[in-house]
Design brief:
With 191 residues, the protein is of the alpha/beta class. It contains eight helices and five strands, in the order E-H-E-H-E-H-H-E-H-H-E-H-H. It binds flavin mononucleotide.
Length: 191
């Protein structure tokens, strides 16, 4: 498998604490990673540990520290995980009210292969705005790991802690690399 650069966007839900699993899976396959966090997710993750692993600052605001790149790095794939009810609805509507949402809006617009892994309970997932958001993002080309074909379903309200343990980090990474490989092949005319 060819390596590449994976842009990870983390939202404010329990599995954010385990994003190191995704970073490790990517690194095993020679991918570089960087994490962008929604402002609400900062309290869910261990930013210094992530920075140590990735070698890149965790970005959550437009402010940059000396030495940080101001522009977005070229990404071979974008993986939004865990993706909250709130952020999925915002992404579908095109809202860009924080640095993470602005990055996502631009990367999707640039047609960067995008995988979204929702972590939502069944009550939220049943809401009409959420169902429309998922359909609209799929129509736009994003790959959303949700539903029986993806073996990843919304969990009953109150069971998030248990479900967090089975968050599909490996499947998410494999899906992102598959989409990135397909995009590379299409660009080089071998698709
Ligand atoms: C402890 C805790 C756990 C939460 N778990 C979830 C969750 O699993 N899924 C979800 O969609 N929202 C969850 N939320 C609510 C989101 O954090 C909230 O909607 C927030 O505004 C999302 O911000 P973001 O989408 O900008 O990251 C949780 C909130 C708290 C305080």
């Amino acid at each position: 498998m060819t390596g590449g650069h994976l842009q990870i966007v983390v939202c404010a839900a329990g599995p954010a604490a385990d994003v190191a699993q995704l970073i490790s899976a990517a690194q095993k396959h020679s991918w570089t990673t960087a994490v962008t966090a929604t402002p609400n997710s900062i309290g869910f993750l261990d930013a210094p540990a992530i920075e140590e692993l990735t070698g890149a600052a965790v970005r959550s605001s437009y402010r940059v520290s000396p030495g940080d790149r101001r522009s977005l790095p070229a990404a071979d794939a974008l993986l939004i995980a865990p993706a909250t009810y709130n952020s999925i609805n915002k992404i579908a509507l095109g809202l860009a009210d924080n640095y993470a949402m602005t990055s996502v809006a631009e990367l999707i617009g640039r047609k960067v292969p995008t995988v979204i892994v929702p972590f939502v309970n069944a009550a939220l997932a049943a809401r009409s705005p959420f169902r429309h958001a998922v359909a609209s993002l799929r129509e736009e080309g994003a790959h959303i790991l949700l539903g029986p074909e993806n073996q990843w379903e919304p969990h009953p309200p109150g069971s998030g802690k248990d479900r967090q343990r089975t968050f599909p980090w490996t499947t998410a990474f494999e899906t992102a690399t598959r989409l990135a490989d397909a995009a590379r092949s299409a660009r080089s005319g071998h698709g």
